[in-house]
User: Fold this.
Amino acid sequence: MTDDTSQVRLEPWSEEDAGLLRALNAPELMGHLGGPETEEQLVRRHRRYVELSADGTGAGRMFRIVLLPEEAVVGSIGFWSQTWDGEPVYETGWAVLPGFQGRGLATSATRTVVAEARAAGLHRHLHAFPSADNTASNAVCRKAGFELLGERDFEYPPGRPMRCNDWRLDLG
Assistant:
């Protein structure tokens, strides 16, 4: 398995990616995130992703993950602005379809999105907040060079408390 970024290409999220979002809404992928979303929630999320990807201010971007050289769309990843502990930061999150997991693709995509966030240049830090018991996503953070700051209480989706790990990467 290789963890370099040449395994994947990130392409900006577009109107055509609604089907990918539905595929990523599978119970086995959403178990650490409060379970699958309703169709109405998916439509709203898709709109946010399209708008974020069209935003040229550096506030963030969503991408589909394309596996190379197969050109197969295998997941999503992005970064967006938020405030954490009173500091403006970027947050990142990802999902890889079940048939493509365990091959280092999420790590490759995360390393690529780090470069995108660094180039956007709005914030000094990039955070990831995987559930404390999500072994795979925590491993992605570690392999991609994030520093574990510790466990924190988090609310995701809104109204659902969860225990997560706060991982931070310095973009400076």
Q: What stands out?
A: Helices lie at 18-23, 27-30, 39-54, 105-120, 135-143.
